[in-house]
Design a protein that fits this description.
heterodimer, A: 11 strands, about 55% strand, globular, B: about 120 residues, mainly beta
Chain lengths: ~120, ~120
């Protein structure tokens, strides 16, 4: 059974810093790895999707990397801003097990606060 | 374009009651998935529907059921509510199905969820 762990659980940094959020998964048999952002009381917003054949994806100030062999993904946020404050979740998409679509397996998230 | 819409936004029910949650996907999206998010946890997969057929089911009891309509909207039903069913229920739509027989590259678009409180 896939397990996804995110470290740290919470992070508070001053505005302008570059930061790294970590995600690890136990089963390397994944189709892709996705990063989401969740604002309080809201749904999830898709940030980046890294296919299993890729090593990284970039969108603006965000860069996500994937190392399947070590079961790790990182989300790098450059020049952080107060508007980046949110919970960041990673999710692994499992390989087809024969029974049907298994959905995403999420970590518990990293609660990020950017201090002005 | 409208995003994924869910109704109601908040709901309070009593133990033993039944509840129906509704979801309208983004126009053109044929797949709908349901997730349960308990406070402080990541979302957990409940169901996926694609082209009105159930494509996947998570580890939830039979009290949970769902269906997808011809217009691709979906309902999630929960019977015999328990206190532990209190959670944010999230609906997500995607252009195609989320499985290896379909390209698994379509990002999920989530609604803002229905907050269910069971007392």
């Amino acid at each position: 059974k896939q397990e996804v762990t995110q470290i740290p659980a919470a992070l508070s940094v001053p505005e302008g810093e570059n930061l790294v959020l970590n995600c690890s998964f136990t089963d390397s048999a994944i189709y892709n790895l996705q990063w989401f952002r969740q604002d309080p009381g809201k749904g999830l917003t898709s940030l980046l999707l890294i296919q299993s054949s890729q090593r990284e994806q970039t969108s603006g100030r965000l860069n996500a990397s994937l190392d399947k062999s070590s079961g790790r993904s990182t989300l790098y946020i450059a020049a952080s801003q107060p508007g980046d404050s949110a919970t960041y979740l990673c999710a692994a998409v499992p390989m087809y097990s024969g029974g049907g679509a298994d959905g995403l397996t999420f970590g518990k998230g990293t609660h990020l606060i950017i201090q002005p | 374009d409208a995003g994924v819409t869910q109704s109601p936004t908040h709901l309070i029910k009593t133990r033993g009651q039944q509840v129906t949650l509704r979801c309208s996907p983004i126009s053109g999206h044929k797949s709908v998935s349901w997730y349960q998010q308990v406070l402080g946890q990541g979302p957990q997969f409940i169901f996926q529907y694609y082209e009105k057929e159930e494509r996947g089911r998570g580890n939830f009891p039979d009290r949970f059921s769902a269906r997808q309509f011809p217009n691709y909207s979906s309902e999630l039903n929960v019977n015999a509510l328990l206190l532990g069913d209190s959670a944010l229920y999230l609906c997500a739509s995607s252009l195609r199905g989320q499985g290896p027989h379909d390209p698994y590259n379509s990002p999920l678009h989530f609604g803002n969820g229905t907050r269910l409180t069971v007392t």
